[in-house]
Records
---
Amino acid sequence: MEKLKKYVSARDEDQFYHQGAVELLVFNFLLILTILTIWLFKNHRFRFLHETGGAMLYGLVMGLIIQYATKASDVESGTVYECEKLKSGRSTLLINITNQVYEYQYRREISHHNVNGHQGNAMLQKMTFDPSIFFNILLPPIIFHAGYSLKKRHFFRNLGSILTYAFLGTAISCIIIGLIIYGFVKAMVHLGQLKEWEFHFTDCLFFGSLMSATDPVTVLAIFHELHVDTDLYTLLFGESVLNDAVAIVLTYSISIYSPKENPNTFDAAAFFQSVGNFLGIFAGSFAMGSSYAIVTALISFMLCEFPMLETGLFFLLSWSAFLSAEAAGLTGIVAVLFCGVTQAHYTYNNLSPDSKMRTKQLFEFMNFLAENVIFCYMGLALFTFQNHIFNPLFIFGAFVAVFVARACNIYPLTFLLNLGRKQKIARNFQHMMMFSGLRGAIAFALAIRDTESQPKQMMFTTALLIVLFTVWVFGGGTTPMLTWLQIRLVLASNPDKNTTKAESAWLFRIWYGFDHKYLKPILTHAGPPLTTTLPEWCNPVARLLTSPSAYGDQRKDDDTDYIINNDELTENYESSAHIPVRDRTGSTQATGKEDIHEGDLGLGGYKLQLEHTAHQPQMNSLA
Amino acid sequence: MEKLKKYVSARDEDQFYHQGAVELLVFNFLLILTILTIWLFKNHRFRFLHETGGAMLYGLVMGLIIQYATKASDVESGTVYECEKLKSGRSTLLINITNQVYEYQYRREISHHNVNGHQGNAMLQKMTFDPSIFFNILLPPIIFHAGYSLKKRHFFRNLGSILTYAFLGTAISCIIIGLIIYGFVKAMVHLGQLKEWEFHFTDCLFFGSLMSATDPVTVLAIFHELHVDTDLYTLLFGESVLNDAVAIVLTYSISIYSPKENPNTFDAAAFFQSVGNFLGIFAGSFAMGSSYAIVTALISFMLCEFPMLETGLFFLLSWSAFLSAEAAGLTGIVAVLFCGVTQAHYTYNNLSPDSKMRTKQLFEFMNFLAENVIFCYMGLALFTFQNHIFNPLFIFGAFVAVFVARACNIYPLTFLLNLGRKQKIARNFQHMMMFSGLRGAIAFALAIRDTESQPKQMMFTTALLIVLFTVWVFGGGTTPMLTWLQIRLVLASNPDKNTTKAESAWLFRIWYGFDHKYLKPILTHAGPPLTTTLPEWCNPVARLLTSPSAYGDQRKDDDTDYIINNDELTENYESSAHIPVRDRTGSTQATGKEDIHEGDLGLGGYKLQLEHTAHQPQMNSLA
């Protein structure tokens, strides 16, 4: 008996050691399945269910299996340990450890136990993430990769429109969703489904802001694969990436908006405080991200002999940008986004060729894994999350609100933008943009952050359903929709030279000039030496700051001002053929010769020399 | 007031969101510092403090800072929340969330609170890992990388000696440490420092087994950098890698050894059960790891078009080997080690060139990060772990025991081995092996697994001190010791042709023949087609299983039997110059031309064609 007891206690301990392994194994298994499916789809050029949709589907099935397979053993696994045993320390191992990393869920469970006496399912709890893992570990690589692979040229050419969609559009979307939802909430209160005091207008706006974050993953991957028109691609990419940042900060600002008295009335002071918060956080995060990137650029100057150290430093400093912003109460995602953009612009040029490859592949890989984990997890959450509240009216309202808001965002704004744009955004482009308003990881992540109260749980359930619906239906419908709207594909054999000139060029002409003359020489090995660009009295400082290799380029770069003002902002088919974002499989054989640089980050790294020489004739012919 | 309260609650929540960020930031900061230090050391060829030692030192300093900097705010941060608040759910956020991923510590804290009413330091708790993160996430890449980069040729040539050191040596070491410690424990009981019933002989053996795991990181990195004699390198590498596996299984077997009555007496049944456990677990883990690798090899056949998918699958399946073994109650580390070896042998050959690069660099990078995190963390643990028990007598005893046990392991076994070896292990090699018995991550990880009882805490503290001492003193002293012992360095300009012939060749000749004829053709694209190696009546099956590309090699490979039996087991300087293990920085410039393949996994992938052609003349001249 003694022995048996000892053995059992050893088994307990054993259980303890192996805990965590099972859950990770489930995720590994889902990811392996997803990869095999992607391979199958790629091989058969099947595009009606995108890999993200596939990942989500597998997650869903797995969630269903876990829920039903573990229900039988519910009573054993959920045994409530007496407080007595707590003191002995050892026997409590099991119950505590099963919750392992899932403290959040654990805490919820505790309060649940206390309040409702409800007993949860251990396996299901295990499969529920701590949102901080989501935010601190899974999201940064995705966002960083988005920023890092941003196609600067096209992005800046359409920057005016992108900013309009991202800032104004998101605000419009947030308010419209909030208003419509508020209407439905009023109706629900009228029907007695909800208490008046449970759901304020700020809650509706909160829901509106989190549902305004569109997903940059699914549609863009398809666009990229099909080589959809570059302008449309850039508009959508820029919008969905920046819009995430805006939505996150907006959600945060709304969550700390607190009118003094009646929460349903408008409080100007609190409102302006929220607006101030919004601007402050956005600017602060931007500054944080950029400064980390600049530090990386400066440090990477030194390390160029050791690719592994370079890559390590690059990775750690970029992640630190995120973590520092979070620790400082700013928004890490905004910081890491701009950190990515700045790293791509400066640091990337300082890396050794080997390092460039390593860094690029590392981030691609992390992005790939993180994305698939998130989508698997979203599928899982539908069944494993314990406190879903399905309210048909609210769900219906949310669906209506999301689509109406998207329409009120795209069509009026495009109309206004078209007044100023030389190259109008075509009707079919507008429909495609309307159609591409998928909701994805960010909306889900924002919703899962707070699932304390019943209204928040209802919001989470609804958000999850909208994500599932849009990813499957809209994601799957992208290819047919493109055909139906007759949106041209950029073919390698038919380079369309007749694309637009710089749209909002004057501001960026100034910025490019400054960047090229002063920042690039200081932060990278590229660009003209500072001795030529700074006034003469600055020469001692200039000499100190200029990299020796910059002098080598001096002779070639005499006409740089001309180049940056004209060439950087002018379309050049050579580079537009390689929309570099999200080559999710690193495929080199599948799409033919024009894709040799597919998967390249397109940041001028490898192609720097190539482009440089390519520019020479053009420059001369223009001179 | 209302507003303030709301604001405060928002702040609380805010705190919650940003929790986890600070701790991760601390680690990021330490790693960045470490990388910069490595760079500095590399640049100045400074070898007295190895990077692992540096990482540990930074961790130590950081631990000190955290301990003293946070002491002042101890009272606020450690507020004990009343049970009342637990029900409201929200206010408990802070206390719960600060422990986040560190459930284990949290539990300990709870029991501590209950038993001693002692109040911990919140920041310090935060910096204490959950051991399951250590085991499930940080160790697998290191061990996998070790297995993956194992130099097969040299390894198999010395396999007899390596197995003797790893199995017999570890057992000897474990018993000797156990006996010496038992002596000291008796003395401590006599002096009244310890109660008789607190420390059994099995506990001493437990300590012996965990202290028998030698560290493969520090010394080998230096050896590799200096190009120390290949035989010595292989012996030490093989010993320290396999010895980890043995020590882990041994520790586990001892922890479940349970004699029926008096725990100090010898119980034959329980003993044999433990031996059975040991063998069963070892064999099971081996089988688990190998079968995952075989599955990967078979799947990777299909995916060769998509490097990213290949790499992803490779990564996930290898990790799954670890997790499955853990979930099945086996030892993940043993599984992942053999998975690495098998992956390197079969799967690696199936990968596309791009994938080979990606996979190699990915594992190098993960290995690099994980190693440095572990060493930083070991430094941190000295100050942040809350329940250290420093017992000078026990510590002294442990130091004596560790050195005596190392001596009893190396010298007698080498004497016995030298009786059978054609190429004797020289005296200075023996001293070097004695000196290289560092204790590292595995010993630490095994010790931190269980710190429940006071004896276990004492063991943990002592193990940590031994790790710190050996890594700093022995790790730092490696270079002077090599000079002092006059151990020759393999110089590129002076290829030593007079190395040994196969030592335990007959067994491996059979294995190699079988592997080359049957397994390689089935599992990889390499090797002769099965149609030539299988008996004629198997032809239909053989045709089905043979990869089409294998036929291409058929003409060239007519003499393969001869090659494998002779060439594979014969030393060839070409390949021995590139000891491929642990190129921790991916440096390509630092060590000169002979290192072009440094960092290559050396698994015949890139060099397959090269070697193949190199073998042809040799083969012909022998024919």
Note: Chain B has 29 helices and no strands.
---
Amino acid sequence: MDKHAQTGWLQNLVNRRSVLATATVGLAVPAAMTLGAAAPGGSTAQAQTGVVKKITMYVEDLPNGLLGYGLEPGKASIPGPLLEIYEGDTLEITLVNKTDERVSIHPHGVDYSVESDGSPLNASFNGPNETRVYTWRSREMASTGHGRLYTPGSAGYWHYHDHANGTDHGTGGLARGLYGGLIVRRRGDVLPDRTFVAVLNDQFINHKKAPDTPMFEANLGQRVEWLAIAHGTSLHTFHLHAHRWADNRTGYLEGPADPSPIIDIKDLNPGSSFGFQVIAGQGVGPGAWMYHCHVQSHSDTGMAGIFLVRNADGSMPPGAQEAIDRFHGHVHASAPSAADTPRTDESHAHHN
Amino acid sequence: MDKHAQTGWLQNLVNRRSVLATATVGLAVPAAMTLGAAAPGGSTAQAQTGVVKKITMYVEDLPNGLLGYGLEPGKASIPGPLLEIYEGDTLEITLVNKTDERVSIHPHGVDYSVESDGSPLNASFNGPNETRVYTWRSREMASTGHGRLYTPGSAGYWHYHDHANGTDHGTGGLARGLYGGLIVRRRGDVLPDRTFVAVLNDQFINHKKAPDTPMFEANLGQRVEWLAIAHGTSLHTFHLHAHRWADNRTGYLEGPADPSPIIDIKDLNPGSSFGFQVIAGQGVGPGAWMYHCHVQSHSDTGMAGIFLVRNADGSMPPGAQEAIDRFHGHVHASAPSAADTPRTDESHAHHN
Amino acid sequence: MDKHAQTGWLQNLVNRRSVLATATVGLAVPAAMTLGAAAPGGSTAQAQTGVVKKITMYVEDLPNGLLGYGLEPGKASIPGPLLEIYEGDTLEITLVNKTDERVSIHPHGVDYSVESDGSPLNASFNGPNETRVYTWRSREMASTGHGRLYTPGSAGYWHYHDHANGTDHGTGGLARGLYGGLIVRRRGDVLPDRTFVAVLNDQFINHKKAPDTPMFEANLGQRVEWLAIAHGTSLHTFHLHAHRWADNRTGYLEGPADPSPIIDIKDLNPGSSFGFQVIAGQGVGPGAWMYHCHVQSHSDTGMAGIFLVRNADGSMPPGAQEAIDRFHGHVHASAPSAADTPRTDESHAHHN
């Protein structure tokens, strides 16, 4: 683990409203206001239209050669802060480069002019210690004028990342931690109680391997939103135990005739993202549920973590602490062994 | 082929009703009854609600170090038996471990408590020669109370597999044959005449390479259901010649406005599954049609098989036997050769 | 670049109507007539039903051991010509093999008898210097008679390729350039102003690496159609900067309740294809926008190109020529470097 900084995975255990509270730092119009900070989980969004949000983000060096984005100096993290806006909003990001290397920020899913592309191709990056403003716009779906056809809006489970460090495609920045989640909501969408961001970046999740991968927590019955992102060069399949979702924009069926397949695993390959909402423990109860990459060599070498569904009152369900303890003593076999038998040892085979 | 047992691929050539007949062994309420054994292909399902089915499954050693699931002692196969239920049903599986290794059974798509997770994380596995009960529940879609949104039901083309042998993720069990298909039907779904299960597990299909891969058979016009599953570590793309389907829950369009793409190939990566129905030979006629992984190095080294569409009366169509003979004499080049010319030799280049 | 012929990438910069004009060579009923040659971009298709189109295609040797399909002798290209038909049409292709090797043509998405399968399995190929006729049919969706279910029609963003050269799966033919696009339109579909075909074949796009990859061009506001195809053995994710589409049959939402996710990147793995329409520069303005494989090692080694969105009047937008010049002087780092800094050199690191 020494090449990966001990940057707080706790920030991944995200309460939606605390994210919004964090995100409001430096905002002209606080996001928490536009999203309705007092709204209970399960409420629907009725934000005002076309807000311009101005934030400052910092790119900073982290230990062990890593890099991170943060909303305040000294607060860079991997992944970077989750950004949320509504369709129609504009996000104006003043990116302060606190490093002596070339970096940028490139979003998926939103509108930007060539000046905000974040690519060296368009000379859109921050040189060493430079500050640069990137503007991301969003929009609602609109009729094409051809029958029932609409051009898509911006709502989606997106992400942002460096596109300039190391190579013209940001391969260095990605390998070192410059990525984060971006959610664009459609008005009327159901709001979650909690949002989790899992970035599968080559053989790591949020730059960690088991048992140091994030433990995401919710109480039984809470509305939980997952945003899964991938970077690097490898094939991944994101699987969540005991929960499933519709393979569409939200994870919910849009009425009984929605033809979307129901899935509990989805391909998650470099540069891609998807998201969905589920009710924590619905139909299965509380417990320590695993999420992991289902590529066997990846799960075996540490691309796995725990989704802890507590009891509805927040207390620990029977067996969950034992499962967590077992996970932290987890031995990751590097190769399947036909003679394998149940193990109860607590050694950290290759995590020390 | 010596590392892969000669376990009967014939079981893959599955007539739906014979599967149900097999599956009824040990059932409190025979599946064939609940699905309507006399129903003709193309009928729709009108099963009773919320049946509890109790079955016993056995994990057994197979030749060459392989393992299999079976519904009776001595009947283990690779893949294991196809399990079918309806949304709302519960499947209670008494898993008898006839081996001296740790094994389990972990399903995709259905509901289970932590005790039935099948993972070492939750201490849910069979130790050597142990018997353990796993309970899988299912449910129908239900309104969320938010506008038109529904939480998904359990209907889908799923699968089950070991999650405890070799590693905590079942990598040993998967490599050795512990996997099978699981279909959860929605009431009202069209029933197929035949169901085929193809598991792409690293470089094998149902643990075989061409020309020993399963030959799936149907008569022209029969309603054929495919369940495709993947395991291991490799990228796959499942392609079926001369047939195509909607990329949604069933393979049929749900009315003329269903926006699903129509496809004849689909990514099939580790831990994933999908299914669809087609009418055998519709629009193209009978013949020996190929199904294969479209990753070139995979098809070239044996990830291919034949879907034999016979004439409507079950007789052999012109040219089909010749194609089958050709396939069995198929030379799989290990590398493309620019100087390649037509071959009629019958040698088994690397299958002997 | 010496192993890849200098076959005109300009043919990839396709104006729909010029494609149709080209495609009419040898047609019994000119395609341009059936599609309405005078129709403005954005019109919808009202072609007559069930046309039989007869074309002759040639397989020819190209420099450096490559092979290509063409609609006239001496005109073979990589990719081969884009073929377009309407649901209900039949395409009768007389394939003239001008090489002394075994080749064939195998389509995705359309109907064909075993004689037109294009596979050695069905003895469906051209021997050296042989001519053979392949017939592809198509059809509209049709009710199954079961509730609202329809069997799919043929409309889609498909492709064709060799299935006989090098190996029985055409691995040699694919590696050497024998592939092309096939679009089957549904009556009523919106017609594009321009169609671009991008084939990701192992580490190449249309058999080129950056900066020699195709530059696709359109004017701001034009309706642009992308057909993306993959071959070979590698994982790919196709990403287009500053544009996004619905992940469904057309790229447009089919009304406000269409549940399709909105995406700007999609997995594109061997044998697969997808397509979509976007309005060039909508919401983002003109400029040199990148399209690339988002697998970092692939974009870094040349799987990237430019989508040039000109001003509405066809003039060059500010900064675009500089971006193009920068791209042609692009240094593709073969490995990320933490110490990387902005570069302005014009050297061709590994393209000379």
Note: Helices of chain A lie at 16-23, 31-35, 171-176, 296-300, 320-328.
